[in-house]
Amino acid sequence: MTHNAPLSSRTLGHLGSLAEPHQRVRTTAQLRAHGVTAAELSARCRPGGPWSRLLPHVYLLRPGPPTGEERLHGALRYAARRPAPGVPVQPTGRHAHRTPYPGAVLTGLTALAVYGFAQTRPENLEHVDVLVPRQRRLRSTGYVRVLRTADLPAPATVGGLPVAPVPRALADAVAQLRDGKTVRRLLTEAVRGGHCEPAAVVAELSRAKLLGLPHVVDAVDSLVAAGRAIAESRLYRMVREHGLPDPLWNVELRLPGGPRLGALDAYWPDQAVAVELDTRGHRRDGADASDEETEWSRYARKREHLERLGITVVHLSPRKLGDAMEQQAAVVRTALMAANDREPAAYVVVLPR
User: Are 174 and 168 spatial neighbours (Cβ–Cβ below 8 Å)?
Assistant: First the structure.
């Protein structure tokens, strides 16, 4: 049988009995390639028929309403680029990937649902958000909301679905939300659930010019606080699991009768070694572009001042503590072991922070 020959009723029924959701959702072009004529398609999609039309040129090959997963595949079938007959799809953009849905990436609450966020579920989504290249002439329709972008992100593949990276998905979700509590819960879950680091989320929100929105400001503050709590937890675990001596936690140093020298996350007074977590805050939209450099300068000045007093300061980032904890423990251990080779540090007063 050629692809142009009509399928038998048995073969048509077999298409609808396929197990995988993406196999049960097909486009007109795919059905035509399997020999399904326009008349057969129309007949099977009549009221009470075994198939139904999900979206323009997209069909569900079984009776009944679509599942949440079938709706996602349907949206991707609708949004994916359709190659010209006989011409394979050519990847475009700096993030070209081989995918069954070229030029289409799930994002926003849709992508977060695919990642398993507790705040959203695929079956509860009113809209399915799909990113497509800006030059595409594709309109939102039905339950599909088309979002155009100048730079389609490199997708992750989760359950066979192309989804935007979590920070990008969060930014696209926040752009559609107006409730500060919902935004705060999503951002906090992203960090506490280990999906991404706060800095990556803040960078995407800044790129999308969302940091200045009132309902986003408090949510981002909560995000940064949650990120610090996770970083501190990783630091405690590093000391415990890698056999480092117990430090004094969360202290402030002062010169006797003099000014404060700054707060530290961990301090070993016998070795005069300090650890400071690099959890610098975010920069609001509209703020001076030099704000971040100014904040880093404060870090650098504090470190230089402490090291002039003979105190070694080790800066650790939350990401490195998560991705390379053993390596970071070795850095701290080396600093502690080198204490005997250094001149004694100046006397400082250690106070709880």
Answer: no
For 149-167, the pLDDT digits (tens) are 999 999 999 999 999 999 9
pLDDT tens-digit series, residues 267-306? 999 999 999 998 765 444 444 445 556 666 777 888 899 9
Is residue 314 classed as helix, strand or coil in its secondary structure? Answer: strand
Least Cα distance to 314 among 350, 341, 278, 352 occurs for 278
Question: Beta partners for 163?
Answer: 106, 156
What DSSP assignment string belongs to 6-47?
PPPHHHHHHHHT-SSGGGSEEEHHHHHHTT--HHHHHHHTST
242-283+290-352 CATH: 3.40.960
What is the distance between the alpha carbons of residues 282 and 185, in angstroms, rounded to a whole number?
A: 18
Distance CA 352, CA 264 (A): 10
Q: 106, exposed or middle or buried, with CB in 10 Å at 0-12, 13-18, 19+? A: buried
Average pLDDT over residues 80-88: 62
Q: Is the Cα torsion angle 119, 125, 126, 127 positive or negative in sign?
A: positive
C-alpha span between 273 and 337 (Å, rounded): 10
Owner of token pair 């990642």: 115
User: Are 132 and 190 a contacting pair, CB within 8 Å?
Assistant: no
| Rg, C-alpha atoms of the chain | 28
Q: Among 234, 233, 237, 205, which Cα is nearest to 218's?
A: 205
Residue that the structure tokens 């450099």 belong to:
293
Q: How far apart are CA 277 and CA 256, in angstroms?
A: 25
Residues 94-125: tens digit of each pLDDT = 444 457 899 999 999 999 999 999 988 888 88
Measured between alpha carbons, how far is 148 from 314 in angstroms, rounded to an integer? 44
Q: What is the DSSP letter of 245?
A: P
**pLDDT score of 172 more than 80:** yes
User: Is pLDDT above 60 for 17?
Assistant: no
- Other beta carbons within 10 angstroms of residue 245's beta carbon come to 12
- 320 Cβ neighbours under 8 A, 6+ residues apart: 327, 328
